[in-house]
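Re: beginner question about structure tokens

> Can someone show what the tokenized structure looks like for a real chain? I only ever see the sequence side.

Sure, here's an example I had lying around. Input first:
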Amino acid sequence: MRNKTIKQKKLVSILEDLGFNKVRTKGSHMIFSNSKYNATVVMRSFKRNEPISEMHLASVRKTIIEKGIVTQEEWNELLIDQ
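And the corresponding structure tokens:
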């Protein structure tokens, strides 16, 4: 299930809960890294309460699922809980 209204602050919280650390927020993009899974997420900086675009959310989802951090079902649950 997709949640088209997830906001940046909630996505950042999910990433941090999954072991990602913000390594840079300079310019128009934020970079998060998870050294355990050798995963990097780069996303445009949105305002904290601005909804994340579907394209950016899909990019984050693809990275964390392909790296084995969560399954598709676990990702869906994370979004439902928001």
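Each token stands for a local structural state, so reading them left to right follows the chain. The domain at 8-80 is CATH 3.30.920.30 (Metal Transport, Frataxin; Chain A).
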